[in-house]
Design a protein that fits this description.
mainly alpha, elongated
């Protein structure tokens, strides 16, 4: 029984790593689109679409963490990390809509750093 749980947990890890990698990539692309926001006419549209994609990637991370934990018997720690990222993503969206760049930009940098740490962290 324990062997099956361990094998299932190992199968969940690649999906979890892919989800974290996708989240990290989308946060990075948001930084790029923020630069375009300042320098081009299409930057606002790109950043707005990117925000939706980044939020979806954060939700995917939560799903992947739950799937790696619950059926596979893995650690619940990634669920807490993923849920925290979803909260940060929600705050980030609200700050962006409210046009509060003094908090929105540093929070984006923090999210990228934390997501990168989650990506390189061994499960």
């Amino acid at each position: 029984m324990a062997t099956q749980a361990t094998a299932a947990a190992r199968h969940g890890v690649p999906f979890l790593q892919i989800a974290v990698g996708l989240q990290t990539l989308t946060i990075f692309l948001q930084a790029v689109s923020a630069g375009l926001l300042l320098t081009s006419s299409y930057g606002e549209t790109l950043h707005s679409v990117g925000a939706r994609v980044m939020y979806a990637a954060s939700m995917l991370y939560v799903l992947a963490a739950v799937l790696a934990w619950k059926p596979g018997g893995g650690s619940p720690r990634p669920v807490w990390y993923a849920s925290g990222f979803l909260v940060l993503a929600s705050v980030q969206v609200v700050l962006g809509i409210a046009h509060v760049p003094s908090v929105h930009l540093p929070l984006g940098v923090l999210m990228f750093g934390l997501s990168l740490l989650a990506l390189v962290r061994r499960p």
